[in-house]
Structure formats: structure tokens, C-alpha cells
TrEMBL record:
Protein name: NIPSNAP family protein
InterPro entries noted in UniProt: Dimeric_a/b-barrel, NIPSNAP
Classification via Pfam families: NIPSNAP
All copies of domain NIPSNAP, residue ranges: 8-100
TM regions (residue ranges): none
Species name: Streptomyces poriferorum
């Protein structure tokens, strides 16, 4: 499994537009076979930072999603919403893997 962590710098005056952008992507990622864990919007503290997390079974599935979303009309409409409104100033993407907690065997000596 691979989890994608997105950190967004958003325009706080365009939060409603960013919320709409997020709603669209939750549905789209799920439609493309991923699991969206949600968008996390500013509450206390920084007013211009938001996060999103979503997972795919593996990097190959994520790459299929990226390729297919590049030509999908609904995905392009979501990208256009962000471009048109300027709700996203910039973003950072990280790829994470979950810790396997099922392993019960103690590590041997190094």
C-alpha cells in the first residue's frame, strides 16, 4: 500500500472553493480505486494550510490513477476549479507506506 500526503497552501479567502475542490477529489480518488482518507482544513493556528491523505494498493495502481485522471473530464473540471479560483497557492506531495504492525517476529541480532 502507498499513501499520498498532500500539504496545501490555500487562499483563506477562497476556503469554500477549496472545500468544493476537496469534495470532488474524495469521490474521484475512490472512483479510481483508491481510498480517500479526507481533507483536513484549517481550524486553529495557520489559516492557509490544509492536508489530504489517500491510499492506493500500490504504486502501480497510483500511477494508473495519475494516467487516467489526466484525461478524465471530471478530474479536469476539478483542476480547472482550482486554477480558476486560485484557492490553491501551492502544494507538496509525499509518498508514505504504513508501518506493518502484523509482524510478530522479533528482529535478530545485527
Amino acid at each position: 500500500m502507498i499513501t499520498i500526503h498532500l500539504k496545501y497552501e490555500i487562499d483563506p479567502d477562497r476556503i469554500e472553493d477549496f472545500e468544493e475542490y476537496g469534495r470532488r477529489w474524495v469521490a474521484l480518488v475512490n472512483r479510481f480505486g483508491g481510498t480517500h482518507h479526507g481533507y483536513f482544513l484549517p481550524s486553529e493556528g495557520d489559516s492557509d494550510i490544509a492536508y489530504a491523505l489517500f491510499s492506493f494498493p500500490g504504486f502501480a495502481a497510483y500511477e494508473r490513477y495519475r494516467t487516467e485522471s489526466a484525461t478524465d473530464p471530471e478530474c479536469q473540471a476539478a483542476f480547472e476549479l482550482a486554477r480558476r479560483t486560485g484557492c490553491i497557492r501551492r502544494y507538496e506531495r509525499r509518498f508514505l507506506r504504513p508501518l506493518d504492525t502484523e509482524t510478530t517476529e522479533a528482529p535478530g541480532p545485527a
